[in-house]
């Protein structure tokens, strides 16, 4: 009897919960037990904005539970670490998650880690319930990140009293699924919470993203033209929706 390869043999490799994915909204399962997201934010926790070369992060003080995310699909309290964006070389691409085959020009990721169960972000990233990331597509026009000071790689700039609420739409309905980091090391440690509503980002803001350089001041200027990962296979996962 020859060896039979079953579907789960294919899923036996340990990379079956990768992100981003294409969310087919009609296939999402309404889960009435999903709670509304509870986002508590203290503007004094924002610290600095850093150009990492492939993107830039706005980093927060995550030494205590001041800005936290809870409820929604989560069973713990998650502490705000940083937010960052993904964009493309043209307005035709840029988002990481795709909705019914539609790509958006940019995507915001607000990154939290499970401070109730783990001691640090680095430790949390090694566990399936370690991180929670809110993904916001299309984004709001209220993003007025003055990035001029960040033009070159490695530069950082103080960035205090930034009100995270400016980045979020009022309607916090979401899709949720278990996935991974979308850059190296692609750990499968993220409860993804992709918001279903937002309003389009201004192309002026997108142009500013593309004006960011991944080079240092001593090199020929090379702009960060795009930093979004292609969509990955869903495998055995189901996407749940917080609204019917
Ligand atoms: N793009 S992401 O939100 O999956 C992400 C968050 C991190 F904190 C680290 C790496 C990542 F790729
Ligand atoms: Zn990201």
Characterization of the model:
It is built from 3 helices and 14 strands. With 244 residues, the protein is mainly beta. Strands 2, 3, 4, 5, 6, 7, 9, 10, 11, 12, 13 and 14 form a 12-stranded mixed β-sheet that branches. A two-stranded parallel sheet has the order 1-8. A hairpin with a 6-residue loop joins β6 (68-71) and β7. The protein is globular. The chain starts with 6 loop residues before the first helix and ends with a strand. Bound molecules: 2,5-bis(fluoranyl)benzenesulfonamide and zinc ion.
Spell out the blueprint of helices and strands.
Blueprint: H1 7-11, E1 22-23, E2 29-30, E3 37-40, E4 46-51, E5 56-60, E6 68-71, E7 78-87, E8 98-99, E9 106-114, H2 121-124, E10 131-137, E11 156-158, E12 174-179, E13 190-195, H3 203-210, E14 240-241
Parallel strand pairs: 1-8, 2-14, 10-13
Antiparallel strand pairs: 3-6, 4-5, 4-11, 5-7, 6-7, 7-9, 9-10, 12-13, 12-14
The structure holds 2,5-bis(fluoranyl)benzenesulfonamide and zinc ion (ZN).
């Amino acid at each position: 009897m020859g060896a039979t390869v079953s579907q789960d043999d294919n899923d036996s490799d340990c990379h079956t919960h990768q992100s981003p994915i294409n969310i087919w909204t009609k296939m999402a399962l309404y889960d009435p037990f999903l709670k509304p997201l509870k986002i508590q934010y203290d503007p004094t926790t924002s610290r600095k904005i850093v150009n990492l070369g492939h993107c830039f992060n706005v980093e927060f003080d995550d030494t205590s539970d001041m800005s936290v995310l809870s409820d929604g699909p989560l069973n713990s309290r998650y502490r705000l670490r940083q937010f960052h964006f993904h964009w493309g070389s043209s307005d035709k691409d840029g988002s990481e998650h795709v909705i019914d085959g539609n790509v958006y020009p940019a995507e915001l990721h607000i990154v939290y880690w499970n401070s109730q169960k783990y001691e640090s972000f680095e430790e949390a990233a090694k566990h399936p319930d370690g991180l929670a990331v809110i993904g916001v597509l299309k984004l709001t026009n209220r993003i007025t990140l003055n990035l001029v000071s960040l033009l070159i790689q490695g530069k950082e700039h103080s960035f205090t009293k930034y009100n995270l609420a400016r980045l979020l739409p009022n309607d916090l309905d979401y899709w949720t699924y278990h996935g991974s980091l979308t850059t190296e090391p692609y750990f499968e440690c993220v409860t993804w919470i992709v918001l279903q509503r937002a309003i389009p980002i201004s192309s002026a803001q997108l142009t500013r993203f593309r004006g960011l350089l991944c080079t240092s001041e001593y090199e020929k200027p090379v702009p960060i033209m795009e930093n979004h990962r292609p969509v990955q296979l869903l495998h055995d996962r189901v996407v749940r929706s917080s609204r019917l």
